[in-house]
Amino acid sequence: MALSNSEEQLMQILWKQKRALMKDLIEAYPDPKPATTTIATLLKRMQDKDFVDYTQLGRSREYFPLVKKKDYFGKHVNGLIKNFFNNDATQFASFFTETTDLSKTQLEELRHMIDQQIKEK
Questions:
Q1: Which of 1, 28, 48, 59 has the smallest number of Cβ neighbours within 10 A?
Q2: What is the pLDDT of residues 12-36, one digit of tens each?
Q3: Kindly report the CA angle at 81 between 66 and 77, in degrees rounded to 5?
C-alpha cells in the first residue's frame, strides 16, 4: 500500500526521529506548521495502513515507524523499473546515469558499488 504525499512527508520525519511524540513531529515541520488534528488524522491513516504504531506514555503517544525507509523506497524503485522501463534495470540505470548530473567521482563510486555486487553474486 502506498502513502499519500502528506503521509510520506510525515513518514520522512518519523524515519529521521525514529520515535516521536506529536509535539516533536509538528515541531519538525517547516512554517507554517500543520494543525495537530491534521497530523493526528495522518497518523491514524498511516496506522491503518500498518506503517506506524505507537506506545502509550501516560496521556501521550510515542509514534514509531513499522516500515523501514529502505524497504519502502526499494519497493517504489522496483515499481518504477517495472512500470516505466519494461522491468529492465539496465534501461533504468542507463536513463539514470544519462539524465542526472552525476560527477565523475559519483559515477566512479557507482561503478565501485556495482563491482561489489558482481563480486558478491
A1: 59
A2: 999 999 999 999 999 999 999 999 9
A3: 25
